[in-house]
Design goal:
By secondary structure, the chain is of the alpha/beta class. The protein is 44% helix and 21% strand.
Length: 424
């Protein structure tokens, strides 16, 4: 025995030192795993109970993540459950303190819960309110981010539960209001752990379809827990990032998930959504007929007024006897012509008299008149006028100009002094 023990090699201290020639016994691995797992601290987790099976003093519970397809088996001591004021049920949302436990004999890992508490409605509302404030601070609910709905959508994207009453309400009421409307329907889970993933995937799918003018997310009423997917931060951010206008039609009037805050339009019910996204064809036809009647009445009234104006214009003297205006103008022109001729004749006569008077004055002052009175002009041959006797000495050739003409002469002697003195 001593020799055999001496021949067995020393066990490796770590898993990395093991080999095919020097392996660990299985119990060593189990012990090390147990020691490692037991060093892990307890953790508080949140989930939803989908299975609940109590056997004697132990209750086996299956928890599922509220946002993902992940589940975990948990063992809860009966004393823990007995101490709870409200018994656990399937579908209850809880928080539990879990600690891993490893069984050496079977190598099975299990989760032990030493404390489990149901999540009350107040806790859920508090979480939703905190998320609401956080998203509002980012501006995701701002009015200027909301897109306007088309006046008449031709194709509506509808995200709703499989074969749900909400889907039937939206399609029936919208088709009754506008029979030509078309739908692109995506049936998804509207509650449970897969709801958020399916809702966001359907939203992204419809948002990528160019023919879809508006997207409606509809679901009937339900409990607060049932409507939790519509307050998921992932869905809220997806709706905010969508390029197509989104209408929220969740539950009843009193239900206000966060989807209502970020949606471009909030409808109180699925039926209300159908009424608000498409117009009523009967009402629109009535409006068209009313508008057409008003247009006909106004056009008729306008034509009647214009006809009356034309009749009034035609009865005016200027149009009843249009040549009268020409006659009046012709008479005015004749009167002005006569006045002009009279004025011109008067002016001509006045100026003729003035010219005659000036002519008489000119003639009275002319040298010819002086000659006509018996005077004569004595000029030398060079044309110089003789004004004194000494300018024409004896023998000077002269020209004598009288009234009827002129004749030549020659000076004979000096002038007589008496004549000179008398002339002076």
């Amino acid at each position: 025995m001593l020799a055999e023990a001496h021949a067995r090699p020393t066990l490796p201290a770590t898993a990395a030192e093991t080999s095919a020639e020097n392996p660990w016994p299985l119990h060593v691995l189990s012990e090390k795993l147990k020691a490692h797992i037991e060093r892990a601290p307890a953790a508080w987790v949140e989930g939803q109970i989908i299975e609940l099976n109590r056997r004697a003093s132990v209750c086996y519970v299956t928890l599922r993540d509220v946002d993902a397809e992940v589940s975990l088996s948990v063992s809860v001591w009966g004393s823990v459950l007995d101490a709870m004021s409200v018994p656990l049920e399937r579908g209850t949302r809880v928080v539990a303190q879990l600690r891993p436990d490893f069984w050496l004999k079977t190598g099975r890992l299990s989760m032990q819960s030493r404390d489990i508490r149901p999540v009350g409605l107040g806790d859920l509302l508090a979480r939703i309110e905190l998320l609401r404030q956080s998203l509002a601070a980012e501006g995701l609910f701002a009015a200027d981010r909301k897109k306007s709905l088309p006046l008449l959508p031709h194709r509506i994207g509808l995200i709703t539960g499989r074969n749900s009453d909400a889907m039937k309400d939206v399609i029936r009421n919208a088709s009754l209001r506008w029979p030509a409307v078309q739908f692109e329907v995506r049936e998804v889970a509207v509650q449970g752990v897969s709801a958020v993933a399916q809702l966001t995937a359907a939203l992204a799918d419809l948002d990528a379809v160019p023919e879809v003018d508006v997207i409606v997310i509809a679901r009937g009423g339900g409990s607060m827990e049932d409507l939790l997917p519509f307050s998921s931060e992932k869905l809220i951010r997806a709706v905010s990032a969508a390029k197509t206008a989104v209408v929220s039609a969740i539950g009843h009037e009193a239900d206000r998930p966060l989807l209502d805050e970020v949606a471009d339009l909030r409808a109180s019910t699925p039926t209300d959504a159908a009424k608000r996204i498409v117009p009523d064809v009967v009402e629109e036809l009535a409006r068209v007929h009313h508008a057409r009647g008003q247009l006909n009445r106004r056009v008729g009234s306008l034509v009647e007024r214009e006809v009356e104006r034309l009749q009034q214009l035609r009865t005016r003297p200027v149009l009843a006897n249009p040549e009268g205006m020409v006659i009046v103008r012709s008479e005015d022109i004749g009167r002005l012509l006569r006045r002009g001729h009279s004025t011109m004749d008067t002016a001509l006569a006045r100026h003729a008299d003035r010219i005659s008077h000036l002519r008489a004055q000119v003639r009275a002052l002319s040298p010819q008149k002086t000659l006509d009175r018996g005077y004569a002009v004595v000029q030398r041959q060079n044309g110089a006028v003789v004004r004194a006797p000494e300018e024409a000495p004896a023998g000077t050739a002269l020209r004598i100009r009288v009234a009827a003409g002129e004749f030549a002469a020659t000076s004979s002697k000096a002038p007589h002094p008496e004549i000179n003195s008398a002339g002076g």
